[in-house]
Amino acid sequence: MTHAIIVEQTGGPVVLRWQRATVGKPGPGQALIRHTAIGLNFIDVYYRTGLYPTPLPFTPGMEGAGIVEAVGEGVIDLAPGDRVGYGQSPLGAYAETRLIPADKLIKLPEWIGDDMAAAMLLQGLTAQYLLRQTFHVKQGDTILIHAAAGGVGSLACQWANALGAIVIGTVGSAEKAALATANGCHHVILYREEDMVARVREITGGQGVDVVYDGVGKDTFDRSLDCLRRRGLMVSYGNASGAVPPFDIGLLNRKGGLFLTRPSVQHYAGTRAELLSMADDLFAVVKTGKVKVQVNQRFALHAAADAHRALEARATTGATVLIP
Fold this sequence. Notes:
There is one protein chain. The protein is of the alpha/beta class and about 325 residues long. The chain has helices at about 40-50, 115-135, 150-160, 175-180, 195-205, 220-225, 250-255, 270-285, 305-310; strands at about 1-5, 15-20, 30-40, 65-70, 85, 95-100, 105, 140-145, 165-170, 185-190, 210-215, 230-235, 260, 295-300, 320-324. It has 2 domains: about 1-120 and about 270-324, Alpha-Beta Complex (Quinone Oxidoreductase, Chain A, domain 1), CATH 3.90.180; about 140-260, 3-Layer(aba) Sandwich (Rossmann fold). The protein has 9 helices and 15 strands. The two termini are about 15 Å apart. The model has no long low-confidence stretch (mean pLDDT about 95).
């Protein structure tokens, strides 16, 4: 017998219930893993609230690290005792043990600790596709990253700085501004106190940025478009403030022939070869020290509701992990 967080109805953090659970033996192509750390991400909130519908009941979570305890038929590149992590999987990470498709697991190098692995894979793979695939950031590009002190933001700002970009970040407090600066932002905008669009235009000499990375959604979408240069790219990759409402596509033309995309990690890591290539790129930049993974909050897994409250209150910085 094991334990897991079970959601029987969608709603606020209170629906995250710690319960006994039964986990069977791995079937063909599956692995049974015992978690040592689990990543907390805003997508977990989307599923908990019902913004992203999924059949009930379910166990949240898409990111974790642990030890392989058993593998099913046909699994040839993993064995019991292997240290593994994952950053894009079927729901089910908020559990002491779980079954998972083995092709979603990544063997962890010795130098990556369990907390770091659980904190870096979903957010790090997200930063990888944003910066290296959705828009290939290069020396001299000027980019805007919202929530620059958050999980994805803190990694993306460091990585973009290392690539030679001019990095503008938005944050909600002076404390987070200091973190964003430490993460490599050349300019930090306190969005509650400053006119974000005016500041971006000032920083860029009136031109606007090449790309906006917006994981906030509804609250920043319109202003993000106004921060772009002519033919700039808007990357809307999350909905922390709620879903972006429908809009007239002609708006993109009126604001300068803009481009808009709404990607997610599964569209880039859809095959095992793609997943492993992205992970190798992420591991390489972290190993150089150019990107540091900051695990700033830890909660017991059974207290996942408290972790969600802190995340939604914007009371977290960097990464947060749940410990079974």
